[in-house]
Amino acid sequence: MVPCQPQSRVDRKVVAALLIFQALFFYHYYCREIAWDVPENNDQTDFLMQSYGIQENVLNHGIGVLWRSLGDPRWRTGNGWLYPWEGAIPAILFGGGRMPRLAVNFIAFAVLQWVAFHTARRVWGRRVYAYALLGLILAENSPWFFAGGLFDFRMDFPAYCLYGIWACAVLRSGMFLERRWAVAAGLIGALLALNRYIASVYMMGAWGLFGIVLLVAWWRARGPARREEAQRRVGNIILATAILLAIVVPAFLFNRHLIYLYYIVGHVTSGEKYIRLRGTGIVDAASYLLYYPKNVLFDHLGRPFEFAAPIGLITAVVLRIVGRRGGSAAAATPWLKNPVLLQLSFLICAILIPLAALTSDISKSPVVGSIVDIPVALLVVQIIAALTENLPEALYPILCVATVVMFGIGANKILDNGTKHSTAYTYKPAIEHLVAADDWMAKFAVEHDWPQPKLSCDAISGWFNNGVINCLAYEHSSAILDFRLLLGDTINKISEAAAMEDLAESDFVILSDPYRISGYPFTEGIAEYWPDIKSWCDQNLVHVQTFKFINQSLILYVRPTAVMEGMISEWIPARGIDLIVPTETLSRFPVINITGQGNPALVMSAAATDQSARGPHPLPTKLVFTGQSYELRIDSSGIDLNGTESAHIHVDFAINVPAVPDQGIIPKPDRVALVREKP
Fold first, then answer.
1. pLDDT range class, residue 64, cuts 50, 70, 90
2. CA distance 121 to 129
3. CA within 20 to 30 Å of 344's CA: 97, 329, 479, 651, which one?
4. 618: left (phi over 0), alpha (psi -120 to 50) or beta
């Protein structure tokens, strides 16, 4: 490392003020653009529900279960471990839904900026490089990317931050010359790997390739001093690697089955990777190999970065030429004290290894390329620092001007993105209609005691799916529901028979009209028999509402059912139960079919009566026990439904021994369904 200018309190105050401003900006943007929006994309909703589950578990059972939640299979995934748990902690301490979890993203981003600034200040010796690096980080597009950014609760963004912090720790160690920073690099790397398992491949690959560079440097070192320093670097990189492996290997072994399913089955043996590849625009070997370099350059670094980085690099090149012509440059810093080539080698490894690993995966994603953003920014500043090392003092004001421009571009990126509406704001009225429909489904499920409702959708969408409903149910009413997706849970083409089977098992159905084919085989198959699906739903389900959503209509159906009152915990009591059914529904579906598990010896028969204002009226009732299950069927076709909004039916049970009214006699039913046919 080069000699560093004395630390300035002004620098700390400037960076601290910048972070405070960003925090206020972050909160304002969340309230204005995110709070009313649905949490899009399946990955985000999965992580949110895991985090909500951890939070609710702690609220119900105390803080002692927080640590045990790490081993709970409900809240572990195959691509990372800690992120849902990290998001739950601030929510447990301070309350809230999505906001405290997204605050984890901002905290990671703030720590990245602080560490990057002070790393550049220390490693390259002048504050001008620190501000240039900070400007480049702020200019990047990844924090504002549609997925995996600041306002998307998925592990891509903390991985983006932690990978940058890890690279800074390696640079801060003097390229593994200082042991304490090498240890820090190992610990930071372990934290990153536990948040995103695949990052361990990136780090181990980068360290492995860079380790070869260190071994070559050791072999070619001349003199005792150079040999001793090269040996120290090799020893410290081995130590850092050992620390990382000692922490993450047990975690990998513990989660090996989930990791196998996610990475091996999901990305290697499954045929879905070819379907996903189809939607990327890749048509030949060149477009395949250039997918991630172009994705990083245009989507994640973005135009402001592409404008700011050349300003710094061109200025550095010009100053280098002018400084040499002036002949007044100071003597070069010895190679071992300023390991420019080692820094360059490491940063190139930290960029190329992730790109190579991602490129080797046939299943492409536009989100994951952000992992190399910070090493790219570090590489740009490293080149600028190397070119302007020992520059005559008279030329530094020019470099300062270039740095101010770079920093200004980054600050403008934050202001520009933070002061304009998000893309979703264009569709705010449509999204509000969707949120109202999602809230209705969640409320209906709670009222009818459906903890695991089944949903079918005819499209694959980040807006309307089971994960969005689950998240909104918790955020709006603190209800933990587990909506299960039947139709629409695969991108593969399915047969009409399979689709109809899913519909018959569903509690809710969402259809889109007019139907449009997306890039997935699933929608191609649905399009072939969509009219039959629509006809079946009209005949066998209850139409709830139709509302406009962007450029089409969404049609919401619910399975005909009844509200069951009078349950005692998980049992039907001896005094019987009451069924409340809307008359409009009952007129179309007169047969009430109640099924469940259990074959109690106490119950002999059941009798249902209409409790309308016209007086009790017996209804045909049949109770059948088959093995360890029961079925209760009631024919309500004899009820006079004129002039009433809902029908009230009471069910009594004949038992063969005396029992108190509140005694449970039949286990709670699994399903209450209304059908057309008579018993």
1. confident
2. 7
3. 329
4. beta
**DSSP code at position 637:** T
pLDDT range class, residue 336, cuts 50, 70, 90: very low
pLDDT of residue 529: 95
- Contacting residues for 386 by C-beta, under 8 A, at least 6 apart: 340, 344
149 and 143 Cβ atoms separated by less than 8 Å: yes
How confident is the model at residue 7, as a pLDDT?
55
State the pLDDT at residue 9.
Answer: 81
Contact 553, 510 (CB under 8 A): no
| Rounded CA separation 98/81 (Å) | 19
Helix crossing, 302-326 with 373-387: angle to 10°? 20
SS3 of the chain: helix, strand, coil, percent, to 5: 60, 15, 30
- Tokens representing 362 are 């046939």
CB 34 within 8 A of CB 96: no
Q: Which of 376-380, 602-606, 668-672 has the lowest mean pLDDT?
A: 602-606
pLDDT of residue 5: 53
Rounded mean pLDDT of the chain? Answer: 90
Identify the sign of the CA torsion 382, 203, 153, 368: positive
Predicted confidence (pLDDT) per residue in 135-189, tens digit: 999 999 999 998 999 999 999 999 999 999 999 999 999 999 999 999 999 999 9
Residue 675's CB: how many other CB atoms inside 10 A? 15
- At 179, list the tokens: 């042991």
Q: What is the dihedral of CA 307, 308, 310, 315, to 10 degrees?
A: 140
Q: Are 634 and 592 in contact (CB under 8 A)?
A: yes
Tell me which H or E stretch contains 667: strand 664-667
Closest by alpha carbon to 19, among 301, 556, 588, 414? 414
pLDDT of residue 99: 96
**Considering only CA atoms, which of 623, 624, 678, 618 is closest in space to residue 650?**
618
* In contact, 557 and 537? CB cutoff 8 Å: yes
Cis amide bond preceding 590, omega within 30: no
75/86 Cα distance (integer angstroms):
12
Residue 277 sits at φ, ψ, to 5 deg, of: -65, -35
Q: What is the mean pLDDT of residues 123-132?
A: 94
Q: Hey, what amino acid is at 470?
A: N
| Type of residue found at 416 | D
Who's near 27: CB < 8 A, 6+ residues apart? Answer: none
Could you give the dihedral angle defined by the CA atoms of residues 591, 596, 602 and 603, in that order, rounded to the nearest 10 degrees? 10
Select from 370, 319, 306 the least CA-distant residue to 136.
306
Q: Which residues pair with residue 62 across a beta bridge?
A: none
One-letter amino acid for residue 281 of the chain:
G
Q: Do 29 and 151 contact (CB within 8 A), yes or no?
A: yes
Cβ neighbours for 62, distance < 8 A, ≥ 6 positions apart: none
State yes or no: pLDDT of 519 exceeds 80.
Answer: no
Coil vs helix vs strand at 571: strand
- Contact between 586 and 563 under an 8 Å Cβ cutoff? The reply is no
Residues 6+ apart with CB under 8 A from 291: 280, 282, 359, 364
∠ at Cα 108 (17, 344), nearest 5°?
95
Mean pLDDT of 542-561: 93
Decide: residue 669, CB within 10 A, 0-12 exposed, 13-18 middle, 19+ buried. buried
Are 485 and 456 contacting, i.e. CB atoms less than 8 angstroms apart? yes
* Residues 583 and 641 sit within 8 Å (Cβ to Cβ): yes
| Average pLDDT for 327-336 | 46
Calpha distance 92→415 (Å, rounded)? 31
C-alpha–C-alpha distance, residues 586 and 157, integer Å: 51
Amino acid letter, residue 636: S
The β-bridge relationship of strands 552-558 and 563-565 is unpaired
